[in-house]
Amino acid sequence: MMQVAGKAGAVLRIDLKAIRSNYRLLQGLLGSAQCGAAVKADAYGLGAIPVARALLEESCRHFFVAHLEEAISLRPHLPVEANIYVMHGSPVGYEAEFLEYGCIPVLNSAQQVLAWRDLAVKMQTRLPAILQCDTGMARMGLSPAELQQCLASSDFMQGIDLLYLMSHLASAEDQAHPMNQLQLQQFNAVRAAFPGVKASLANSSAIFLGKDFHFDLARPGAALYGVAPVAGQANPLQAVVHLQGRIIQTREIPAGAGVGYGASWRSQQASRIATVAVGYADGWLRSLSNRGVAQIAGHTVPMVGNVSMDTITLDVTGVAETHLQPGALVDLISTDNTVDKVAARAGTIGYEIITSLGGRYERTYSN
Ligand SMILES: *Cc1c(COP(=O)(O)O)cnc(C)c1O
User: Fold this and answer.
1) Pocket-forming residues, ligand 1, beta carbon under 6 Å
2) Each residue of 232-249: pLDDT tens digit?
3) CATH tag, 31-225
4) Residue 15 and residue 367: Cα distance in Å, rounded?
């Protein structure tokens, strides 16, 4: 696709139709369990407001963010029947803001539980919350010991309307990892202490671990955005992110010439180099230096030299001149050169590629 007009160095197209289709696929796998959505970090860099609104049309009613601040920004854009959960819980002293803005905390520690309970008692009402238990990841939630201690006091959950018991898996993308079954067992042991309370365990990858992991509510993020959920298996989800960078100029170089900072690449032969207006300040990771590829009119061309702040350089030797005019767009992330392939070349995961996508792109949303 060649397009010459445009003031931005690159065009980022986010396919909301693909996000909706991915949501339907996940909801289908979940059967009677509900599919929520992780829209933290601005929906992994893709735009929390347009993404959440698209998912709302698919009847998604459960949205997860990390921080209270993210929930406050999103709240006016969603109807009251849509729940927004703050996975970090309340920052100390900000409990009342959850009521003011109609957001629900995930309680991760005895301290957070106590503060929420105190507010409920003070308001003489019942306040909704999710309770997170650590089942082995050692990152968030009450540890088994802390939970035991809390359960020993009868008024532990007084005034709290416990919507879900929640935990998070450490290794769900690796289906054979022993952690999955261990964490599931631990989660079921914790659940036994909360009869009748609904549960939420699955992120994207855990949805693919099967029914035992589904419980009542799943919280996928990455899979909605097209990132492959299962290591070593074909990705059943549609690509969501399409990134095209614009050619600024091209030049001929002789054999043996260095390209870019540090001359980290040298031409073996006379070559043509195209400079494209995307760099590490746009989230095009510097680790893609001499490792990334781009696509121009059916050619896959290597990124040569180091990634600069605002530019990359491509070896476009052999590509027809008509495709190399200033303003022409080259594909950096496409259905073919997926987020996961770019991540593998950069030595990272698809999550980091999309959450890094920069603020200088011309963004378009297709429905
Ligand atoms: C980010 C996050 C999710 C979503 O994870 P994905 O792997 O992107 O599906 C779910 N639950 C918790 C606790 C998270 O931090």
Assistant:
1) 38, 40, 87, 168, 203-205, 219-223
2) 999 999 999 999 999 999
3) 3.20.20.10
4) 6
